[in-house]
Amino acid sequence: MTWTDWLVVPALVLAIVAVVVALQNRTRLSGWRTAPAPAGAPTPTPANGRPQVAFVVNPTKPGAAGLRDEAIAACATRYLPAPMWLETTGDDPGVGQARKAVADGADVVIAAGGDGTVRAVAEGLVGTGAAMGLIPLGTGNLLARNLDLPLGNRPALLRIALTGTDRPIDVGWVTILRDMPQDAEDERPDVEGPADEDADADADAGRAADGPETVPGGPEHIFLVIGGVGFDAAMVADTDDDLKARVGWIAYFLGGVRHLHARRMRLDVRLDDAPWRSVRLRSLLVGNCGRLPGGITLLPDAKLDDGWLDVGAIDTRGGLVGWSQLFGEVAMQRFGIRAELPNRIGRIEHSRARRIHVRSREPQQVQLDGDLIGSACELEARVDRLALVVKVD
Questions:
Q1: Angle at 347 between CA 229 and CA 330, to 5 degrees
Q2: Which of 91, 216, 332, 377 stands 20 to 30 A from 24 (CA)?
Q3: Are β-strands 309-316 and 283-287 bridged in parallel, bridged antiparallel, or unpaired?
């Protein structure tokens, strides 16, 4: 890096925050449909008697070693039966363990691990009526933050997981429908590079988005907080695990620096039954809620139980100028100021839907709650309302 690059490193790190945070602005994608929130939904019936508790634990996480004794003592103090204890493996990160716990009579299944463990346990519990408790042991601990759990306070976390209030929440699902281009003619040429970084992002807006029918895909992947295609997924892919263990969530920002000058994606996007739209973006994010580490609120209006997925389209042009403008918008939005600047080259646009369909002419990496699930040329996301019960204070 040259000396000028080093001068803008702090701004670049903040710009990465802005990209991941980009949905702060409530500006709507022009012409994209929105709808009112759904009516209230039922809540689960509280369990009677003494619940049977199971712990599904990732044994590789720091803090997992002494948890078993603490869990047994916490249950005994509350006159609960001795808890079941199941550990995750490389082959099964928690789905099978959660299902086994329910089959063996567990009323509460506590996920102790990082965001990947939480996703896996949630997948095993969806639709069962059993509640999920959380003992966060990871780097991001995204769902725990959005549930206002007391991170770092093990006794309080155990109390909430064992005796807290049951709260039903939505979950999101993503299906990769196609992971490769349909044929060679279907691939777009790479026309954008450093020389045309300031080109009009809407140059392709009139291109027809109609194409072949959806190809049936594989299994659905659950997410509880946010999923994304583009810059955010590339950032996750390039985050060093050892660095993440040493410095925590800041490692994600450092992993994204190398992608600041990457090409913008060309996507076709459809929200619910609205017409297809062609867009050029840095990231397309789909969120169930939106609080991130570092005090960042990614989706200020997203709710875990509203039956909607919030969608954020993030774009910058003009190199550092665009990134700086994007960061400026995010910074102002944190204080309740919504900028409506004309001809923005760093922009954040929002919408919401129950189902989102995305197509790309070339494979794009996909992340869910900070975990890479693969690459896709076509995918679909949907919301499953109030499908999971969680323990809260």
A1: 95
A2: 377
A3: antiparallel
Q: Are 133 and 78 in contact (CB under 8 A)?
A: no
- pLDDT tens profile 160-203: 999 999 999 999 999 999 998 876 444 444 433 333 444 433 33
Helix (H, G, I), strand (E, B) or coil at 283: strand
Q: State the Rg of the chain over Cα.
A: 22
With H, G, I as helix, E, B as strand and everything else as coil, classify residue 383.
strand
> Both tokens of residue 41?
């939904």
Per-residue burial over 301-335, b if 16 or more Cβ lie within 10 Å, else e, is ebbbbbbbbbbbbbbbbeebebbbbbbbbbbebee
Closest among 283, 287, 294 to 351, alpha carbons compared:
287
pLDDT mean across residues, the chain: 78
Query: 338: which 2 tokens?
Result: 């919504």
Residue type for position 111? A
State whether residue 166 is helix, strand or coil: strand
Instruction: Give Cα 200 to chain centroid, integer Å.
Output: 29
Look up tokens 């939005």; give the residue.
333
**Alpha-carbon torsion, ordered 65, 68, 71, 77, to 10 deg:** -120
Write phi, then psi, for 125 (nearest 5 degrees): -100, -15
**Residues facing residue 384 across a β-bridge:** 171
Rounded to the nearest 5°, which phi and psi values hold at 248? 80, -150
Q: Tell me the per-residue pLDDT of 6-43, one tens digit each, with 9 for 90 and over.
A: 333 444 444 444 433 333 333 333 334 333 333 333 33
Question: What amino acid occupies position 126?
Answer: V
Q: How far apart are CA 118 and CA 132, in angstroms?
A: 9
How far apart CA 9 and CA 95 sit, in angstroms, is 40
